[in-house]
Structure formats: C-alpha cells, structure tokens
Amino acid sequence: MSRSPKVYLTRRETFSASHRLHSTLLSDSDNIQIFNKCNNPNGHGHNYVLEVTVIGHIDDNTGMVMNISDLKELIQIYVLNILDHKHLDLDVEYFRTKSIVSTTENLCVFIWEQLCSRIQKQYNNHVQLYEIKLYETEKNIVTYRGE
C-alpha cells in the first residue's frame, strides 16, 4: 500500500499586540542599551503576520492534509484570542508570570506550545505542526520549528 504525498499546508493570520522589551535579569541601563527604543516603559506595538504550517499526507477520502477550517479555529482559540489587541507583558500569562522577554523569538515558541499538541491530538498524529513564522515587521521575521 503506497502512502499519499506528504504536503505542507500554511494558514496566514494577523494580529496586533503591544509589548516592552525588558529583561528582569538585566539592569535598567543594560536594558536601554540592548533594547533601545523598544525598552520604552509604555511599550510599543506591532501588526504581526503569523504563518502556521502543518505537514501530513493527503487524506485519500478528503483530498486534504487537514481541514483548513480546523486549523483556522485552533489558531483563533489558542493564539489570536490570547494575543490580539493585548499587551503581551501585562495581559498574557506566559510572559507575565514567567518573566519571559516578549521578543518575537519567544512569541514564536509560545505559539508553537499553544498549537503543537492540540493539532497532533485532533488528527491522531497524522498531521504535525511543522513551522511557526512570525513577521514582526516586513523586515523582521522569526521562524521556529520546535527544535
């Protein structure tokens, strides 16, 4: 029995959030030197573009890797409802309680952790989260693959 082709499926979403780049492990002067204007005590905002990519074999019955509506719903519930129009450092427990600096790198890891096991569970491990790509700006992009 031959397996159907393995395909990558990507869903693109957008959200807006504010944050302040500030590490409690550094002095105030070090924070200012490292993060510059991004260390503004009142924070600053971004219009993020998120790409969530999954990988799996095309289902013979549906012709899909997974239903894109399912992926859209998972992203909405476990990412956008938590992050959109929020101050990451004040409103998102992951950053607030763990004192994790709300860099785009750490935001990618958070999104991965929110989605990875849920996608695998919903699709009985037939579909895997492959990549989180987050555009902080048109020029600043972070990619995370769970490594």
From TrEMBL:
<dbReference type="GO" id="GO:0005739">
    <property type="term" value="C:mitochondrion"/>
</dbReference>
<comment type="similarity">
    <text>Belongs to the PTPS family.</text>
</comment>
<comment type="pathway">
    <text>Cofactor biosynthesis; tetrahydrobiopterin biosynthesis; tetrahydrobiopterin from 7,8-dihydroneopterin triphosphate: step 1/3.</text>
</comment>
<keyword id="KW-0783">Tetrahydrobiopterin biosynthesis</keyword>
<dbReference type="GO" id="GO:0046872">
    <property type="term" value="F:metal ion binding"/>
</dbReference>
<keyword id="KW-0862">Zinc</keyword>
<dbReference type="InterPro" id="IPR007115">
    <property type="entry name" value="6-PTP_synth/QueD"/>
</dbReference>
<protein>
    <recommendedName>
        <fullName>6-pyruvoyltetrahydropterin synthase</fullName>
        <ecNumber>4.2.3.12</ecNumber>
    </recommendedName>
</protein>
<dbReference type="InterPro" id="IPR038418">
    <property type="entry name" value="6-PTP_synth/QueD_sf"/>
</dbReference>
<keyword id="KW-0479">Metal-binding</keyword>
<keyword id="KW-0456">Lyase</keyword>
<dbReference type="InterPro" id="IPR022470">
    <property type="entry name" value="PTPS_Cys_AS"/>
</dbReference>
<dbReference type="GO" id="GO:0006729">
    <property type="term" value="P:tetrahydrobiopterin biosynthetic process"/>
</dbReference>
<dbReference type="Pfam" id="PF01242">
    <property type="entry name" value="PTPS"/>
</dbReference>
<dbReference type="GO" id="GO:0003874">
    <property type="term" value="F:6-pyruvoyltetrahydropterin synthase activity"/>
</dbReference>
